[in-house]
Design goal:
Length: about 350
Protein backbone atom coordinates (compact mmCIF):
# COMPACT_ATOMS: atom_id res chain seq x y z
CA UNK A 1 0.00 0.00 0.00
CA UNK A 2 1.39 3.38 -0.98
CA UNK A 3 1.40 6.18 1.64
CA UNK A 4 -1.29 7.97 -0.36
CA UNK A 5 -3.64 4.98 -0.26
CA UNK A 6 -5.57 3.41 2.58
CA UNK A 7 -7.82 0.38 2.75
CA UNK A 8 -11.30 -0.47 3.82
CA UNK A 9 -13.31 -3.59 3.09
CA UNK A 10 -14.89 -2.10 0.02
CA UNK A 11 -11.59 -1.30 -1.67
CA UNK A 12 -8.89 1.34 -1.77
CA UNK A 13 -9.37 4.92 -0.62
CA UNK A 14 -6.89 7.26 -2.29
CA UNK A 15 -6.08 10.18 -0.05
CA UNK A 16 -6.02 12.86 -2.69
CA UNK A 17 -8.75 15.41 -3.47
CA UNK A 18 -11.63 15.05 -3.74
CA UNK A 19 -11.82 11.78 -1.81
CA UNK A 20 -9.30 12.61 0.93
CA UNK A 21 -12.20 13.37 3.24
CA UNK A 22 -13.24 9.74 2.90
CA UNK A 23 -9.80 8.54 3.95
CA UNK A 24 -9.87 10.78 7.01
CA UNK A 25 -13.43 9.75 7.81
CA UNK A 26 -12.24 6.15 7.65
CA UNK A 27 -9.41 6.92 10.09
CA UNK A 28 -11.86 8.61 12.46
CA UNK A 29 -14.14 5.57 12.31
CA UNK A 30 -11.23 3.21 12.92
CA UNK A 31 -10.35 5.15 16.07
CA UNK A 32 -13.95 5.09 17.28
CA UNK A 33 -14.28 1.34 16.85
CA UNK A 34 -10.97 0.25 18.35
CA UNK A 35 -11.62 -2.34 21.03
CA UNK A 36 -10.51 -1.69 24.63
CA UNK A 37 -7.53 -4.05 24.34
CA UNK A 38 -6.20 -2.15 21.31
CA UNK A 39 -7.19 -4.52 18.49
CA UNK A 40 -10.01 -4.47 15.96
CA UNK A 41 -12.73 -6.80 14.70
CA UNK A 42 -12.27 -8.51 11.34
CA UNK A 43 -14.33 -8.19 8.15
CA UNK A 44 -15.66 -4.72 8.96
CA UNK A 45 -16.40 -1.85 6.61
CA UNK A 46 -15.65 1.04 8.93
CA UNK A 47 -17.11 3.55 6.48
CA UNK A 48 -20.28 1.89 5.31
CA UNK A 49 -21.52 -0.29 8.13
CA UNK A 50 -20.06 -1.91 11.22
CA UNK A 51 -21.36 -5.22 12.56
CA UNK A 52 -22.87 -3.85 15.76
CA UNK A 53 -23.78 -7.28 17.09
CA UNK A 54 -20.19 -8.50 16.74
CA UNK A 55 -18.92 -5.33 18.35
CA UNK A 56 -21.34 -5.71 21.25
CA UNK A 57 -20.23 -9.31 21.79
CA UNK A 58 -16.59 -8.25 21.75
CA UNK A 59 -17.20 -5.51 24.29
CA UNK A 60 -19.13 -7.82 26.61
CA UNK A 61 -16.89 -10.88 26.36
CA UNK A 62 -13.49 -9.42 25.51
CA UNK A 63 -13.28 -11.78 22.49
CA UNK A 64 -13.13 -10.23 19.05
CA UNK A 65 -9.81 -8.50 18.49
CA UNK A 66 -7.88 -10.46 15.89
CA UNK A 67 -5.17 -10.48 13.25
CA UNK A 68 -7.23 -12.76 11.00
CA UNK A 69 -8.18 -11.55 7.51
CA UNK A 70 -5.86 -8.56 7.81
CA UNK A 71 -7.61 -7.15 10.87
CA UNK A 72 -5.68 -4.79 13.19
CA UNK A 73 -2.61 -4.52 10.93
CA UNK A 74 -4.80 -3.04 8.18
CA UNK A 75 -6.28 -0.45 10.52
CA UNK A 76 -2.85 0.46 11.86
CA UNK A 77 -1.48 0.91 8.33
CA UNK A 78 -4.33 3.22 7.49
CA UNK A 79 -3.77 5.43 10.53
CA UNK A 80 -0.05 5.65 9.80
CA UNK A 81 -0.72 6.37 6.13
CA UNK A 82 -3.02 9.29 6.92
CA UNK A 83 -0.47 10.82 9.31
CA UNK A 84 2.35 10.37 6.81
CA UNK A 85 0.53 12.46 4.20
CA UNK A 86 0.70 15.52 6.44
CA UNK A 87 -2.80 16.28 5.25
CA UNK A 88 -4.44 19.13 7.20
CA UNK A 89 -5.70 17.50 10.39
CA UNK A 90 -6.74 18.97 13.69
CA UNK A 91 -4.30 18.50 16.58
CA UNK A 92 -6.86 16.26 18.27
CA UNK A 93 -7.11 14.05 15.18
CA UNK A 94 -3.34 13.66 14.95
CA UNK A 95 -3.12 12.76 18.61
CA UNK A 96 -6.03 10.34 18.33
CA UNK A 97 -4.46 8.53 15.36
CA UNK A 98 -1.08 8.27 17.07
CA UNK A 99 -2.63 7.05 20.29
CA UNK A 100 -4.77 4.46 18.50
CA UNK A 101 -1.76 3.19 16.56
CA UNK A 102 0.25 2.92 19.77
CA UNK A 103 -2.52 0.95 21.44
CA UNK A 104 -2.70 -1.33 18.42
CA UNK A 105 1.05 -1.91 18.58
CA UNK A 106 0.89 -2.72 22.28
CA UNK A 107 -1.96 -5.16 21.50
CA UNK A 108 0.29 -7.00 19.05
CA UNK A 109 3.14 -7.09 21.56
CA UNK A 110 0.86 -8.35 24.30
CA UNK A 111 -0.71 -11.11 22.23
CA UNK A 112 2.65 -12.63 21.25
CA UNK A 113 3.49 -15.93 22.92
CA UNK A 114 6.78 -16.36 24.77
CA UNK A 115 7.95 -18.60 21.91
CA UNK A 116 7.35 -15.76 19.43
CA UNK A 117 4.14 -17.02 17.82
CA UNK A 118 0.90 -15.10 17.35
CA UNK A 119 -2.57 -16.54 18.00
CA UNK A 120 -5.47 -15.70 15.73
CA UNK A 121 -7.46 -13.93 18.47
CA UNK A 122 -6.47 -12.24 21.69
CA UNK A 123 -7.68 -13.02 24.18
CA UNK A 124 -8.49 -16.43 22.73
CA UNK A 125 -10.46 -17.85 25.66
CA UNK A 126 -14.06 -18.16 24.53
CA UNK A 127 -13.21 -18.00 20.81
CA UNK A 128 -13.08 -20.97 18.42
CA UNK A 129 -10.87 -23.85 19.57
CA UNK A 130 -8.24 -23.00 16.96
CA UNK A 131 -8.04 -19.31 17.91
CA UNK A 132 -5.11 -20.02 20.23
CA UNK A 133 -2.99 -21.72 17.56
CA UNK A 134 -0.10 -19.91 15.89
CA UNK A 135 -1.86 -18.70 12.77
CA UNK A 136 -0.28 -18.44 9.32
CA UNK A 137 -3.66 -18.64 7.61
CA UNK A 138 -4.48 -15.61 5.43
CA UNK A 139 -1.00 -14.20 6.17
CA UNK A 140 -1.94 -13.34 9.77
CA UNK A 141 1.57 -13.84 11.17
CA UNK A 142 3.32 -12.48 8.09
CA UNK A 143 1.24 -9.28 8.23
CA UNK A 144 2.20 -8.74 11.87
CA UNK A 145 5.89 -9.48 11.32
CA UNK A 146 6.07 -7.16 8.35
CA UNK A 147 4.48 -4.33 10.33
CA UNK A 148 6.69 -4.88 13.40
CA UNK A 149 9.79 -4.93 11.22
CA UNK A 150 8.88 -1.71 9.43
CA UNK A 151 7.99 0.01 12.71
CA UNK A 152 11.26 -1.05 14.33
CA UNK A 153 13.23 0.46 11.43
CA UNK A 154 10.98 3.55 11.31
CA UNK A 155 10.24 2.96 7.65
CA UNK A 156 7.60 5.13 5.97
CA UNK A 157 4.82 5.63 6.77
CA UNK A 158 5.60 4.69 10.38
CA UNK A 159 8.31 7.33 10.72
CA UNK A 160 5.51 9.92 10.81
CA UNK A 161 4.29 8.49 14.11
CA UNK A 162 7.34 9.68 16.08
CA UNK A 163 7.23 6.56 18.24
CA UNK A 164 9.50 6.31 21.27
CA UNK A 165 12.80 4.48 21.04
CA UNK A 166 11.57 1.96 23.60
CA UNK A 167 8.46 1.10 21.57
CA UNK A 168 10.46 0.71 18.35
CA UNK A 169 12.97 -1.48 20.18
CA UNK A 170 10.14 -3.62 21.55
CA UNK A 171 8.73 -3.97 18.04
CA UNK A 172 12.16 -5.05 16.77
CA UNK A 173 12.57 -7.63 19.52
CA UNK A 174 9.06 -8.99 18.84
CA UNK A 175 9.84 -9.21 15.12
CA UNK A 176 13.00 -11.25 15.70
CA UNK A 177 11.26 -13.61 18.12
CA UNK A 178 8.36 -13.99 15.71
CA UNK A 179 10.73 -14.71 12.85
CA UNK A 180 12.53 -17.32 14.92
CA UNK A 181 9.20 -18.97 15.71
CA UNK A 182 8.24 -18.95 12.04
CA UNK A 183 11.47 -20.77 11.24
CA UNK A 184 10.90 -23.18 14.14
CA UNK A 185 7.44 -24.03 12.76
CA UNK A 186 8.76 -25.17 9.39
CA UNK A 187 7.85 -28.87 9.20
CA UNK A 188 10.62 -31.45 9.21
CA UNK A 189 10.04 -34.79 7.50
CA UNK A 190 12.69 -37.52 7.75
CA UNK A 191 15.20 -34.92 8.90
CA UNK A 192 14.61 -32.49 6.04
CA UNK A 193 12.89 -29.12 6.07
CA UNK A 194 9.71 -28.84 4.03
CA UNK A 195 7.01 -26.14 4.26
CA UNK A 196 4.43 -24.95 6.80
CA UNK A 197 0.90 -25.74 7.91
CA UNK A 198 -1.84 -23.10 8.08
CA UNK A 199 -1.68 -23.22 11.85
CA UNK A 200 0.74 -24.68 14.38
CA UNK A 201 0.18 -25.76 17.96
CA UNK A 202 1.07 -22.88 20.26
CA UNK A 203 3.15 -25.15 22.52
CA UNK A 204 4.60 -27.95 20.39
CA UNK A 205 4.73 -25.92 17.13
CA UNK A 206 3.50 -29.02 15.29
CA UNK A 207 0.94 -28.76 12.45
CA UNK A 208 -2.59 -28.72 13.80
CA UNK A 209 -6.16 -28.33 12.60
CA UNK A 210 -8.57 -25.42 12.44
CA UNK A 211 -12.00 -25.83 10.85
CA UNK A 212 -13.18 -29.39 10.19
CA UNK A 213 -11.88 -29.40 6.63
CA UNK A 214 -8.58 -27.68 7.52
CA UNK A 215 -6.51 -30.64 8.66
CA UNK A 216 -2.88 -30.80 9.78
CA UNK A 217 -0.94 -30.85 6.53
CA UNK A 218 1.84 -29.56 4.38
CA UNK A 219 0.29 -26.36 3.07
CA UNK A 220 1.14 -25.71 -0.56
CA UNK A 221 -0.32 -22.68 -2.31
CA UNK A 222 -1.30 -19.79 -0.11
CA UNK A 223 0.39 -19.75 3.26
CA UNK A 224 3.69 -21.50 2.55
CA UNK A 225 4.16 -19.58 -0.69
CA UNK A 226 3.56 -16.28 1.08
CA UNK A 227 5.85 -17.19 3.98
CA UNK A 228 8.63 -17.88 1.48
CA UNK A 229 7.98 -14.61 -0.36
CA UNK A 230 8.15 -12.79 2.98
CA UNK A 231 11.45 -14.44 3.91
CA UNK A 232 12.89 -13.48 0.55
CA UNK A 233 11.92 -9.84 1.18
CA UNK A 234 14.24 -9.61 4.16
CA UNK A 235 17.54 -7.79 3.86
CA UNK A 236 19.87 -10.39 5.31
CA UNK A 237 22.59 -7.78 5.78
CA UNK A 238 20.61 -6.16 8.60
CA UNK A 239 22.45 -6.59 11.92
CA UNK A 240 19.31 -7.97 13.59
CA UNK A 241 19.16 -10.78 11.00
CA UNK A 242 22.80 -11.84 10.97
CA UNK A 243 22.30 -14.58 13.56
CA UNK A 244 19.37 -16.00 11.54
CA UNK A 245 20.85 -15.62 8.08
CA UNK A 246 21.83 -19.27 7.62
CA UNK A 247 18.49 -20.53 8.93
CA UNK A 248 16.56 -18.18 6.64
CA UNK A 249 18.55 -19.35 3.62
CA UNK A 250 17.96 -23.00 4.52
CA UNK A 251 14.25 -22.34 5.05
CA UNK A 252 13.87 -20.67 1.67
CA UNK A 253 15.89 -23.25 -0.26
CA UNK A 254 14.07 -26.17 1.35
CA UNK A 255 10.60 -24.66 1.07
CA UNK A 256 10.92 -23.73 -2.59
CA UNK A 257 12.38 -27.13 -3.42
CA UNK A 258 9.51 -28.93 -1.65
CA UNK A 259 6.85 -26.91 -3.46
CA UNK A 260 8.47 -27.43 -6.84
CA UNK A 261 8.80 -31.17 -6.25
CA UNK A 262 5.10 -31.37 -5.33
CA UNK A 263 3.71 -29.44 -8.28
CA UNK A 264 1.04 -31.12 -10.37
CA UNK A 265 2.50 -30.84 -13.87
CA UNK A 266 0.30 -31.12 -16.95
CA UNK A 267 -2.88 -30.42 -14.99
CA UNK A 268 -5.22 -27.44 -15.04
CA UNK A 269 -8.33 -26.26 -13.22
CA UNK A 270 -11.34 -26.12 -15.54
CA UNK A 271 -14.47 -24.08 -14.90
CA UNK A 272 -17.64 -25.58 -16.37
CA UNK A 273 -21.43 -25.74 -16.05
CA UNK A 274 -22.52 -29.00 -14.46
CA UNK A 275 -25.61 -31.11 -15.18
CA UNK A 276 -27.63 -29.03 -12.73
CA UNK A 277 -26.78 -25.84 -14.63
CA UNK A 278 -24.48 -24.58 -11.88
CA UNK A 279 -20.97 -23.16 -12.15
CA UNK A 280 -18.50 -25.84 -11.11
CA UNK A 281 -14.81 -26.70 -11.34
CA UNK A 282 -12.70 -29.81 -11.92
CA UNK A 283 -9.09 -30.79 -12.45
CA UNK A 284 -8.34 -32.02 -15.98
CA UNK A 285 -5.29 -32.88 -18.05
CA UNK A 286 -3.62 -29.91 -19.65
CA UNK A 287 -0.55 -28.96 -21.63
CA UNK A 288 3.02 -29.38 -20.35
CA UNK A 289 2.90 -25.68 -19.45
CA UNK A 290 -0.08 -26.19 -17.13
CA UNK A 291 1.03 -26.67 -13.53
CA UNK A 292 -1.11 -26.71 -10.38
CA UNK A 293 -0.31 -26.61 -6.68
CA UNK A 294 -2.71 -28.05 -4.11
CA UNK A 295 -3.49 -26.32 -0.87
CA UNK A 296 -3.10 -29.38 1.36
CA UNK A 297 -0.76 -32.37 1.21
CA UNK A 298 -0.95 -35.35 3.56
CA UNK A 299 1.73 -35.34 6.26
CA UNK A 300 2.51 -39.03 5.64
CA UNK A 301 2.06 -39.64 1.94
CA UNK A 302 2.74 -36.05 0.82
CA UNK A 303 -0.12 -36.42 -1.67
CA UNK A 304 -2.84 -33.77 -2.16
CA UNK A 305 -6.15 -34.17 -0.34
CA UNK A 306 -9.55 -32.47 -0.32
CA UNK A 307 -12.23 -32.42 2.41
CA UNK A 308 -15.91 -31.88 2.94
CA UNK A 309 -17.13 -30.43 6.22
CA UNK A 310 -17.00 -33.92 7.74
CA UNK A 311 -13.21 -33.67 7.81
CA UNK A 312 -12.62 -36.87 5.83
CA UNK A 313 -9.77 -36.42 3.33
CA UNK A 314 -10.19 -37.53 -0.30
CA UNK A 315 -7.54 -37.80 -3.03
CA UNK A 316 -9.42 -35.88 -5.75
CA UNK A 317 -11.30 -32.59 -5.93
CA UNK A 318 -14.18 -34.41 -7.61
CA UNK A 319 -14.57 -36.65 -4.55
CA UNK A 320 -16.04 -33.89 -2.39
CA UNK A 321 -19.44 -32.23 -2.55
CA UNK A 322 -20.40 -29.19 -4.57
CA UNK A 323 -20.48 -26.75 -1.64
CA UNK A 324 -16.91 -27.33 -0.43
CA UNK A 325 -15.56 -28.03 -3.91
CA UNK A 326 -16.55 -24.54 -5.00
CA UNK A 327 -16.48 -22.75 -1.66
CA UNK A 328 -12.78 -23.05 -0.83
CA UNK A 329 -9.47 -22.48 -2.60
CA UNK A 330 -8.28 -26.08 -2.82
CA UNK A 331 -6.00 -25.88 -5.82
CA UNK A 332 -4.49 -23.10 -7.92
CA UNK A 333 -1.97 -22.57 -10.72
CA UNK A 334 1.58 -22.97 -9.52
CA UNK A 335 2.89 -19.51 -8.48
CA UNK A 336 5.64 -19.04 -11.04
CA UNK A 337 6.39 -15.64 -9.51
CA UNK A 338 7.81 -17.58 -6.55
CA UNK A 339 10.39 -19.28 -8.76
CA UNK A 340 11.27 -16.01 -10.48
CA UNK A 341 11.71 -14.30 -7.11
CA UNK A 342 13.74 -17.24 -5.86
CA UNK A 343 16.23 -17.09 -8.72
CA UNK A 344 16.82 -13.38 -8.07
CA UNK A 345 17.08 -14.01 -4.34
CA UNK A 346 19.66 -16.76 -4.83
CA UNK A 347 21.87 -14.52 -6.93
CA UNK A 348 21.81 -11.90 -4.20
CA UNK A 349 22.16 -14.05 -1.10
CA UNK A 350 24.09 -17.16 -2.03
Amino acid sequence: MRPDQCLHRGGTVALSDPVSREGIALADSIVRHQLPNGGWLKNQDWLRGVDRAAQKRALSTGVGATIDNGATTREMKHLAGVLALQYPLTPSQREAYREAFGRGLRFLLQMQFANGGFPQFFPYEGAAHYARHITLNDDATVNVLRLLHDVSLRRPPYDALCLSDSLCTAAGDAFVRGLQCLLDCQIRKDGRLTVWCQQHDEQTLLPTSARAYELPSFCGHGESVNVLLFLMELDLSEPALQALRQRICMAVDSGVEWLWNHRLAGMRLERFTNADGMADQRVVSGTPDDVLLARYYDLTTEQPFFCDRDGIPHPHLSDIGYERRNGYAWIRPFPLKLMQRYEAWKMKNQ
